[in-house]
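Course assignment 3, question 2. Fill in each field.
Student: A.L.
Task: Predict the tertiary structure for the chain below.
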Amino acid sequence: MKAHEMTEALGKRLIGRQVLTQAMGTWPGGLAKVLELDPDPNDDNIVMLVKPLAGQIDPDTKEPFKEMGIFWNEEISFRKR
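Answer field:
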């Protein structure tokens, strides 16, 4: 499901949920926890902010990602339990 579709359907119920994200740019994708919806009201492209849960490493800094914005058109899904 596209990120914007999930945020429209579930709204604030997404906060705190674990989602699987797709790789995009330097972000390798993977398991992440939703921290915030619409983190920057001036940027309609980013619909949620997530915290990586799988130790994803930024290839530029060689440090773990602390958080990542998810674009409206990225594919995300819920983690299977």
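Instructor remarks: The chain has one domain: 3-78. The longest strand covers residues 30-37.
Grade: pending
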